[in-house]
Design goal:
Chains: A mainly alpha (about 280), B alpha/beta (about 300), C mainly alpha (about 260)
Structural class of chain A: mainly alpha
Low-confidence stretches of chain B: none
Number of strands of chain B: 14
Strand content of chain A: under 5%
Oligomer: heterotrimer
Strand order of the largest sheet of chain B: 6-7-8-3-9-10
Number of helices of chain A: 13
Strand content of chain B: 25-35%
Mean pLDDT of chain B: 89
Distance between the termini of chain B: 35 Å
Helix content of chain B: 25-40%
Shape of chain A: globular
Order of helices and strands of chain A: HHHHHHHHHHHHH
Number of strands of chain A: 0
Radius of gyration of chain B: 24 Å
Largest sheet of chain B: 6 strands, mixed
Mean pLDDT of chain A: 87
Largest interface: B-C, 41 and 30 residues
Low-confidence stretches of chain A: none
Shape of chain B: elongated
Distance between the termini of chain A: 14 Å
Order of helices and strands of chain B: EEEHEEEHHHEHEHEEHEHEEHEH
Largest sheet of chain A: none
Chain lengths: ~280, ~300, ~260
């Protein structure tokens, strides 16, 4: 049975047993990412999309501005607008950038400085460690996907005064970014656990992202079979987005499979991550 | 004595943080201990000395040549850095040989010097193992070996004994004393005062970016007027001895520890006190079993000057 | 001062360490991915009794974009930026900076070592792919000449990108992120911008050197800038590389590298 004690000194008081043992990892990680150079630039750039879509939402909710919906197809329906917001290339790329920025060195730095054993020598399990690290990337991803999405729904309700449409949209605006953020976080954390070199981790992440598109494109170009699009990460995100928001699918193959692929890959990445950490000596 | 290192009004800051403040230093041959608490400025000083940093104000010269961007100077300098840094994919031999080759020796001499350096630190048997397989002490010895390849005139050692086992500590200290006798200049930075004391009596004490003291430990100790010397004597008649010692305005304080048959004298006239003490003991029947100076050492100098 | 002997010593040492490193092994294996895809595609075509994909078509539309728009840029970023950044991260820069070796020699020796290994990784994958996709006519003079020219183009590309990323590595802390933004941001967008923005990319000149045209996106309003001639492109890239390298040496000489918190 592991010994769980309060530290390396005699403790005469009573321990305040926290249920969320990984919380200090989370809070320290959030602060550390925020303090990094270019963090504000990255966050401001990512947030800019929200304001563009806020304007689009306003235009789409005003009957007198209906002429614009004819000109700009993406705001012709709420589903299309939200789906476009969540699956456009810019946000997908920026989500990847945020994952790299917040997560590429989370575990690789601990491996480099041999500090994982310091974490695990405390009353902290490997699951607590993984959860703490995972929550850092998840926090920032949700901050720039889930939060703006919910705000867009709230603004939609404010602009139209229609509560009923907002409920279904809210549910979809929660499910989609949560699934995608879980995917990015697990991929990033798994890659971070594979090498001590943070630079190498960043590059491998982009290799995985762009290679999946390239390979999918190659196979599709030759076989003209839409099923090969399932190889591409970006296409899966877009397909799943179309499925969730009920819009026209990106390619002619079942949309739910993209969701299953993303969740399945998330599970695989987490398994690889826990296997990697098992090898760390304590 | 010829000056080896001359620093004039050296100041260095990192943004708003002051690393060094108007340090002037003159170092000649022999072993010089460099001491100071964390954040004192020791590493900043060593980085300036080894050309890693350029002072914002002031000038530093080694062998009368400027240091920064002067790579030729390193033919005469050996440096053992503080960091536990190593190239991952190479063996100890490959690393030492590489360092040796950079001095421009012939192939035969390169190999010979590399082998000699490894022999001196006892790593000949492990030379073909990857550095990643070395223990911390072995890596430290390897670093030290890399600094002595070129039989340099100046050796700069930053925490050279960190992680080294006691036996090798003694051997390396002995090696450094031999280098001193050969006429070389050695600067050793360490947090472990007993190591410095074992090597040298000459110290530079840095605190808050300034030099607090520079010179012989005893001489520095004598100058610390606010902390008189303590001399502890264990004998069979402590009070009798004290009675004989009172007078001539030598003593500032006397403390008796009767259960230990000990008397502790405080004096600010150390040399005259010892003259009087030896005369008194030799002209009395008091049996003395021990005379010590509990605060006549580097630790005390350090504590008194840093003000703990 | 240039000391060729010391550059040679540094070169030899770092080629050895790089060839043993995991990232080199990864990139060599990674260079074989297009070959694997080619074999899978033709395997599937065999299973479904379809006409096999022509090797030359695959090489032009698959292999060329992979190597010249993706692989070379990434390997140049990983190795080029790492010349000094890795030494700073692992704190081993001190061993080089406190040796009697000029900064030019340090950078020259290391950079040429990293270039050599990058080129080797590229050459292995691209040569095997070319041979497998042009198997029938490989022993003809024309085919071999094309292969050699491709290798030369790859070498020039690696030199150009690596010297740019070397400059990022010696001057910036976040060299990898900025390098990625350059590759996937600027170089991608500039290709489709009208006007002469394309001339500010390395890729623009590569196309003039390559014996097989590298496919690229059509520009906005379908306006394309006229490709420079072979000689002009080669000289421009070599001048870019020389400027980036010289700037790197200058920065490396002047800059102070703090390897740890000051004590």
């Amino acid at each position: 049975m592991p010994i769980r004690e309060g530290g390396y000194y005699n403790w005469e008081g009573t321990l305040n047993k926290s249920k969320i043992k990984w919380f200090p990892i989370f809070t320290n990680g959030i602060r550390a990412v925020y303090k990094k150079r270019f963090s504000k630039l990255l966050f401001a750039t990512t947030s800019s999309l929200f304001f563009i879509f806020l304007i689009a939402l306003y235009v789409s909710s005003k009957p007198e501005l209906k002429i614009w919906t004819k000109l700009v197809q993406m705001i012709s329906s709420d589903a299309l607008l939200f789906r476009t917001y969540y699956t456009n290339g810019f946000l997908v790329f920026m989500s990847a950038m945020i994952s790299v920025f917040a997560g590429s060195e989370l575990i690789s730095n601990d491996l480099k400085h041999k500090s994982i054993s310091l974490y695990l020598a405390r009353p902290l399990s490997k699951l607590d460690y993984i959860t703490g690290k995972f929550s850092i990337i998840l926090f920032y991803l949700l901050m720039f996907t889930l939060v703006p999405g919910i705000l867009l729904v709230i603004f939609k309700v404010i602009f139209t005064g229609d509560f009923s449409a907002g409920i279904a949209l809210l549910a979809k605006s929660i499910i989609f970014p949560v699934v995608i953020s879980l995917f990015w976080s697990s991929l990033m954390l798994m890659l971070s656990s594979l090498s001590e070199n943070g630079r190498f981790v960043k590059i491998i992440f982009f290799v995985a992202f762009f290679m999946s598109q390239m390979i999918a494109g190659m196979f599709w170009g030759i076989f003209r079979n839409d099923n090969f699009m399932y190889i591409s990460i970006e296409k899966n995100i877009q397909q799943f987005g179309s499925f969730v928001f009920g819009t026209k699918l990106e390619f002619s193959a079942p949309g739910w499979i993209s969701g299953a692929i993303l969740l399945g890959l998330t599970a695989v990445f987490l398994l690889v991550l826990s296997y990697r950490l098992k090898k760390v000596e304590v | 004595m010829g000056t080896v290192i001359k620093g004039e009004n050296l100041s260095k800051w990192y943004g708003n943080v002051l690393g060094l403040s108007e340090i002037s230093v003159d170092i000649s041959k022999g072993i010089q201990g460099l001491l100071g608490p964390n954040g004192a400025g020791k590493s900043t000083f060593l980085k300036i000395l080894t050309g890693q940093l350029k002072p914002n104000i002031g000038e530093i010269k080694i062998f009368d040549e400027p240091v920064f961007n002067n790579h030729e100077l390193f033919h005469r300098i050996g440096y053992c850095p503080e960091f536990d840094a190593y190239y991952r994919e190479v063996t100890g031999w490959e690393f030492i040989r590489f360092k040796s080759a950079l001095f421009g020796y012939s192939k035969k001499e390169t190999d010979q010097r590399a082998l000699t350096a490894l022999e001196k630190v006892g790593l000949t048997d492990s030379k073909d193992r990857k550095i990643t397989a070395y223990s911390l002490g072995m890596r430290q010895r390897l670093k030290f070996a890399s600094s002595i390849i070129n039989d340099s005139d100046l050796l700069i050692l930053d925490e050279p004994l960190r992680g080294v086992d006691p036996l090798w500590r003694i051997r390396i200290i002995k090696m450094l004393k031999e280098f001193e006798e050969e006429g070389r200049t050695i600067i050793v930075s360490s947090h472990i005062l007993s190591e410095i004391e074992a090597m040298t009596n000459n110290v530079i004490l840095i605190h808050q970016g300034k030099i607090f003291a520079h010179g012989d430990i005893q001489e520095i100790r004598d100058l610390i007027g606010s902390h008189p010397h303590k001399v502890s004597v264990v004998c069979d008649d402590a009070r009798g001895l004290a009675k004989k010692m009172i007078g001539d305005d030598l003593l500032l304080n006397i403390q008796f520890l009767d259960n230990e048959q000990k008397v502790i004298f405080e004096t600010d006239k150390r040399d005259k006190f010892f003259d009087t003490l030896t005369y008194t003991i030799s002209n009395s029947t008091i049996n003395v079993s021990e005379i010590t100076s509990p605060d006549d050492n580097l630790q005390s100098v350090f504590d008194y000057l840093i003000g703990r | 001062m240039v000391n060729l002997n010391k550059i040679k010593i540094i070169y030899g040492f770092f080629v050895k360490t790089l060839l043993r490193s995991k990232k080199t092994k990864f990139f060599i294996l990674f260079s074989l991915v297009p070959l694997l895809i080619f074999l899978i595609i033709n395997g599937l075509k065999l299973i479904y009794h379809d006409n096999l994909l022509a090797g030359s078509d695959f090489f032009k539309n698959g292999g060329m974009p992979f190597f010249f728009q993706f692989y070379i840029q990434l390997i140049s970023l990983l190795f080029g930026a790492a010349v000094i950044s890795d030494e700073i991260d692992s704190k081993t820069l001190i061993y080089l900076n406190t040796s009697p070796v000029s900064k030019f020699s340090i950078l020259g020796g290391k950079f040429s070592a990293y270039l050599s290994v990058s080129f080797l990784s590229f050459a292995i994958g691209s040569t095997i792919l070319y041979v497998m996709t042009h198997f029938k006519g490989i022993l003809t003079t024309k085919s071999l000449a094309t292969l050699l020219q491709l290798q030369f183009t790859g070498l020039i590309a690696i030199i150009a990108y690596s010297s740019l990323f070397l400059l990022f590595g010696v001057s910036l802390k976040k060299s990898t992120i900025i390098g990625l933004v350059f590759i996937f941001g600027w170089e991608t967008i500039a290709q489709i911008l009208p006007g002469t923005a394309q001339k500010l990319t390395i890729f623009f000149y590569l196309n003039s050197l390559s014996p097989i045209r590298i496919p690229k996106e059509k520009g906005i309003l379908n306006i394309s800038v006229i490709q420079p001639g072979y000689g002009e492109a080669l000289i421009t890239l070599l001048i870019f590389s020389a400027i980036f390298f010289a700037a790197s040496v200058y920065v490396f000489k002047k800059r102070e590298y703090l390897l740890a918190d000051h004590t």
